[in-house]
Design brief:
The protein is of the alpha+beta class. The chain is 27% helix and 14% strand. The protein is globular, with a radius of gyration of 18 Å.
Length: 305
């Protein structure tokens, strides 16, 4: 089968899109710190990763996403509280619980609806840095405060300790050879969780492992338009990645092009399970842009007190 051009291009540019870097999402606190120190030792002084990756507080002013999901920043970010009635923030030592207030409010609203669908609450992974921008490790997206990772593990009944949040692993719902979901783990509640997010009008994309997309295509009945927003991508077997559209009339924020029409359950999905995918290997993002190469406004935002 001929691989869809969109996926060939995406694979070539994977280091720039940053939707998946093997193992990084599940790195524990010690592994994350080691990767950060190794990256800082390599970075030039004017690397955007250094400036944004070391920022510990949000930039002042009204909420404003600047640029696009893989090359941008955000002013006026808000932090998702570490604990809520239907969520808990994971990997707190990373300080990546920041996003545009629209995203933070959206997560809280959706989380509140989930117990009725049999999902007790969210374990929220990386959202973004206090000022967005490129990260020292892992993602090359999550830069404008409109992306968030949600673990495929139900929130436990008790409050996890900080040490547990920094070191425990999420649940892998894909089988060992990647051909399908693992029936020992995958439950109807996983489908309901993804559907709850995909039906929200604010959502532009949800990235999942191809095996999860395959399971959804098989399990969902006649009401399928929401499947269009769920797109397969490498990794994402422990979590899924939600992306909101840019706020309306915000000219500094750049949306992606709309996904291809249809539910995404045809030939494009089949390609992910062919031999061709074995030659397209994800890799860790490179050093990335200099601060001067970021969108207008990001350099001043990075340097703001």
């Amino acid at each position: 089968m001929r691989a869809p051009i969109v996926y060939l291009v995406a694979a070539v540019l994977l280091g720039a899109t940053g939707l998946w870097v093997p193992a990084l999402a599940q790195d524990n606190a010690a592994q994350e710190m080691a990767r950060r120190q190794a990256m800082l030792a390599r970075l030039p002084a004017d690397a955007a990763k250094r400036w944004f990756g070391l920022a510990t507080t949000p930039a002042p002013g009204p909420a404003r996403p600047i640029g696009d999901y893989t090359k941008g920043c955000v002013a006026g970010a808000a932090q998702l509280p570490a604990d809520g009635p239907t969520w808990q923030v994971m990997r707190p030592s990373r300080n990546r619980g920041w996003g545009h207030p629209l995203l933070i409010g959206f997560l809280q609203r959706v989380a509140a609806t989930l117990p009725a669908a049999g999902w007790p609450g969210l374990l929220v992974g990386d959202i973004g840095q206090p000022r967005g921008g490129p990260m020292l490790t892992g993602h090359a997206s999550h830069q404008v405060g409109l992306d968030a990772d949600i673990w495929l593990t139900p929130m436990p009944e008790r409050r996890l300790t900080a040490a547990e949040r920094d070191n425990m692993s999420a649940t892998d719902v894909v089988n060992a050879n990647g051909s399908d979901v693992d029936p020992r783990v995958w439950r109807p509640e996983h489908r309901k969780l993804l559907e709850a997010f995909a039906r929200a009008p604010e959502v532009e994309r949800i990235f999942v492992n191809p095996a999860i997309k395959r399971a959804l295509c098989r399990e969902v009945g006649g009401d399928r338009p929401w499947l269009e927003r769920i797109r397969p991508w490498w990794g994402h077997n422990y979590h899924f990645h939600i992306r909101l559209a840019c706020p309306r009339n915000d000219t500094e924020c750049h949306d992606q092009k709309p996904p291809p029409p249809g539910d995404g359950c045809g030939a494009d999905l089949d390609w992910w399970f062919t031999q061709e995918t074995k030659y397209l290997t994800p890799r860790e993002p490179a050093i990335g842009p200099r601060l001067s190469e970021m969108p207008a406004g990001c350099a001043a935002l990075a340097r703001a007190p």
